[in-house]
Design goal:
With 336 residues, the chain is of the alpha/beta class. The chain has 11 helices and 18 strands. The strands form 4 sheets. Strands 3, 5, 6, 9, 10, 17 and 18 form a 7-stranded mixed sheet that branches. It has a 6-stranded parallel sheet with strand order 13-12-11-14-15-16, with helices on both faces. A 3-stranded antiparallel sheet has the order 2-1-4, with no helix packed on it. Strand 15 (247-255), helix 9 and strand 16 (276-279) form a beta-alpha-beta unit. The chain is globular, with a radius of gyration of 20 Å.
Amino acid sequence: MQILACKKPGELEYQEEVCNRIKPGHSLLKVKAIGICGTDLHAFEGTQPYFTYPRVLGHEIAAEILETTGPNFQKGQSVTVLPYFNCGACVACQKGKGNCCVSLQVFGVHIDGGMKELIQVPDSSLIAGEGLRTEELALVEPFSIALHAVKRAKLEPREFVLIVGSGPIGIATAIFATERGAKVLLLDVHEDRLAAAKKMVEELETYNVRSGSAVEKLQEFSKGTMAHVVFDASGNLEAINSSFQYLAHTGRYVLIGLQAGTIQFSHPEFHKREATLMSSRNADRSDFEEVISFLKNRKINLAHFITNKIGFEELGYKFQGLLDPNSMVIKALVEF
């Protein structure tokens, strides 16, 4: 079978791989579609902090079961994959937080992922996707990342929320924050992404930070309160460091995006707010199940979200173009 491997930053290569006999407790899946996420792009750039090379990318998966020993699954069934493989024994796992396991292995990051025609995954990682179209199934994982962050923040109705970064995770975070009754302002430097977000969430307010002072816009938006909750979905160090200024007193700052640098902020300014700083890593099964239910209800128009569809055989030479800000990519989907 054919695979696409990232040999080193900036270099992808198609290779042939033998499909090994199925391991006990595992299922064999035919990949139907896979989403390209920020982790994949950063790995290609060489800026993903948890990454080693060579590596097969990809963890946003829509697939069909070819063989399984899972008691609740059968051949031909549509599934997605919970791509966070945890040890089950560490302090995080004992608390039911396998998403941040001490020895976590994320499919496509720490171990080879889904850019293959066929993949093997543990039966325990399968999640049924009946009722979803293939493209929706491939979006369950990134939407679950956003939902997990929103749940971490414990949003309350009518709270003022600022989301920095209007990529796929930022837009999905805006969707779920709005669903919970928050008033949401989305910041970015890309007007096309802001416009797409606005089409998907009518209640959303957007602001291009190149247009002027984001502080003044936020004060106007929140009637001087600033943001009860700030989400960083940019993964940009400068944006992360500068966004502490947007926190209201008693505010919560949730880091969804990831970068390799050192976060710096004024301790007195943070301290006097009695603010909370937290990270949000990956998602769990309950997040996946909630997202699947949400997508089944067709509450959003994904036509504004999936901007690029690329055949697997074309991805090797088209991947570089996804990094170009002028390409106006929001979410690229690879089709097999």
